[in-house]
Design a protein that fits this description.
It comes from Sphingomonas aerolata. This is Putative GH43/DUF377 family glycosyl hydrolase. InterPro entries: Glyco_hydro_beta-prop_sf (IPR023296), Mannoside_phosphorylase (IPR007184). It is a single chain. With 371 residues, the chain is an all-beta fold. It has one domain: Tachylectin-2, Chain A, CATH 2.115.10.20. It is 1% helix and 45% strand. It contains one helix and 26 strands. The strands form seven sheets. Strands 19, 20, 21, 22 and 23 form a five-stranded antiparallel beta sheet that branches. A four-stranded antiparallel beta sheet has the order 1-26-25-24, with no helix packed on it. A hairpin with a 2-residue loop joins strand 5 and strand 6. It is globular and about 65 Å long.
Length: 371
């Protein structure tokens, strides 16, 4: 089975970054990861890689600094160290306000990387098509693209980060290289919006994952566990979304490995139903252990799960990141974000350790019903 890192921080030329020459300080690639993926008209695969670009020296003069976009410029905001909590290397918390407030140690932008048809090697890196912040609601970055092709149109959801809101934004394209920003489609904290690759009953459908600090308990003895879960929404035009009344995929009480969950790949239609790869997080340390799981959803009513497994489909692979161990800042994280049909197998794209892009070939028989 092919299972390799295909794109890492070392593969990025920061002299061609949207931030190049605009920050006033040295930067480096904290991670090149969580790639949205789709198949181009020429048969090749396209990764839309999240590039987290960070300051080489974020702590200086008793302050920790964050990069922020404003009116076409990239600024460095200084926060006194005594005001913040820096336990998580990806962000710092600003306590004391009665609710959680944070800033990021990097700013993310999206880089289109073209692979061959099976995702084994890089064909081209399209720096001229990179997507960077361009509105105030993206001032802390554009993160975690997920790409779906519905009919002849490519739709890409992203997470846009700012003090204004933590929202989901939509881009559209005719070729998956030139993207038009359509604006905000979910105006609440939502990290994982995945548009189904096909209409259901003439409507667009999407998996969503609203976040919050409060969840109500299921009754004692329930098969479900309270916490972040995967919901569903419907839309007539992919712009205006109504939450579906029935829940989607929920954490199961029988395992703590999926105590927190969220969407992974845009659902694709198979003979059995909609195949959805999603992530489950087992509480552990600061970040948790991220694994990839799968479910098959009813083709006419995706709130109905036809098949699933408690055993993970993918786990973090330390052997892959061993050559990059000096750059690692988290471990036990695989975050699957793209899937493409390749005949007898699926090409699956993931972020590995919030550091690099991993491609795995998974046989279609992995999703067959038990004999």
């Amino acid at each position: 089975m092919f299972d390799q890192l295909v794109f890492t921080p070392a593969d990025i030329d920061l002299s061609r970054s949207p931030l190049a020459g605009k920050v006033g300080a040295e930067t480096y690639v904290l991670g090149a990861f969580n790639p949205g993926m789709t198949r181009l008209a020429n048969g090749n695969l396209l990764l839309m890689v999240r590039v987290a670009e960070a300051l080489r020296e974020p702590v200086k003069g008793g302050n920790v600094h964050a990069i922020r976009w404003q009116d076409g410029a990239y600024l460095r905001d200084a926060w006194p160290l005594q005001m913040v909590d820096t336990k998580d290397p990806r962000k710092f918390l600003i306590p004391g306000g009665g609710w959680k407030v944070m800033a990021l140690t990097s700013l993310s932008w999206l880089l289109p990387v073209e692979l061959d048809a099976e995702g084994r090697s890089v064909v081209a890196v399209h720096y001229d098509k990179a997507i960077a912040p361009r509105t105030p609601y993206q001032c802390y970055g554009v993160e975690d693209a997920r790409i779906s092709k519905v009919g002849d149109r490519y739709l890409m959801t992203t997470c846009s980060v700012s003090p204004e809101r933590h929202s989901t934004t939509l881009y559209s394209s005719a070729d998956a290289l030139d993207w038009q920003l359509e604006g905000i489609v979910l105006d609440h904290q939502n990290k994982d919006m995945l548009i189904f690759e096909g209409l259901i009953g003439g409507q667009y459908w999407a998996q969503t994952r609203p976040l919050g600090d409060l969840y109500f308990a299921y009754p004692p003895g329930s098969e479900w566990r309270a916490g972040p879960s995967i919901n569903l929404s419907r839309s007539p035009d992919a712009l205006h979304w109504k939450p579906h009344d029935k829940p989607g995929i929920r954490p199961h009480a029988a395992t703590v490995s999926t105590a927190r969950m969220g969407g992974g790949t845009p659902p694709i239609l198979t003979d059995r139903g909609w195949l959805s790869l999603w992530h489950g997080v087992e509480p552990s340390g600061v970040v948790g252990i991220y694994r990839t799981y799968w479910s098959i959803l009813d083709k006419d009513d995706p709130s109905i799960t036809i098949a699933t497994q408690h055993a993970p489909l993918l786990e973090a692979n330390p052997a892959l990141t061993e050559p990059l161990k000096d750059q690692m800042y988290v471990d036990n994280v695989v975050f699957t974000t793209g899937i493409a049909d390749a005949g007898d197998f699926y090409v699956v794209a993931s972020g590995e350790a919030d550091l690099a892009c991993r491609i795995t070939h998974i046989a279609k028989t992995a999703f067959d019903p038990p004999a």
